[in-house]
Amino acid sequence: ILSIHLHRLRVFSASTGELAHELDFTLQDNGGPHETCRVTRDLLLRALEEELPAGTIRYSSKIVSIHDQDGAAKILHLADGSTLRAKVLIGCDGVNSVVAKWLGLPKPSHSGRLATRGLAHYPDGHGFQPEFLQFIGHGFRFGFVPCDGTRIYWFYTWSPSQNASADKGVDVEGAAKMKQHVLARPRSSKVPAGALEVVERSHMSDASAAPLRFRSPLSLLFASISKGNVCVAGDALHPMTPDLGQG
């Protein structure tokens, strides 16, 4: 199974354990049936690449600087020392976008929260229903969703203590302590044991942790999101927190 079609979203209170919200993904409207599924990034990239001529996509090509060439083409200097000449440059290089910086967009702001993301493996099958589960309360949001029959993607967002900066909140934990940190608040809340096991089964060396940042939509009203043959899209344009992006 390469992906699972999700049936619904269920949000529970971490304080009481009661169901707080439910959204049915299978409902149909005049536009026909909805389709909500979880696909891993490697499969998505592979599917996109197969639709393009061989060699079109160049991986591990981080841009470090951009220069004009005769006011038309752009010369992209990459981290490996090589260069690319682009007639059109569309920056989709994430929250730390070099292209957005070149355009003069304001630097993304910290939201005051951090997020840890991971992947749990169940070689014999996880047994969870095809649904997106979330638990909210006590200063955290914890959720997970099946990717297929043996893997589950999970996330945990939280606010650091008042005397710790957002960046330091990630660094002080380290990979060895991150699992206990993620489990601490949910264990003292009304989060079921089966949900906690998702984190317990994960190899934290594969998990990622970072501050959640965003760029205020109002700031874009007074900025240039394009300049000649250069523009930005996606997180490079409008980085946002998961609850705002619903992602």
From TrEMBL:
This protein's record includes keyword Oxidoreductase: yes
Keywords, ordered alphabetically: Monooxygenase, Oxidoreductase
Domain of life according to the entry: Eukaryota
FAD-binding domain residues: 32-247
Matches recorded under InterPro entries: FAD-bd (IPR002938), FAD/NAD-bd_sf (IPR036188), MOase (IPR044560)
Molecular function terms from GO: FAD binding; monooxygenase activity
SUPFAM superfamilies given in the database record: FAD/NAD(P)-binding domain
Pfam families from the UniProt entry: FAD_binding_3 (PF01494)
Family, as annotated: Belongs to the 3-hydroxybenzoate 6-hydroxylase family.
PANTHER family xrefs: FAD/NAD(P)-BINDING OXIDOREDUCTASE FAMILY PROTEIN, OS03G0153100 PROTEIN
Protein name, per record: FAD-binding domain-containing protein
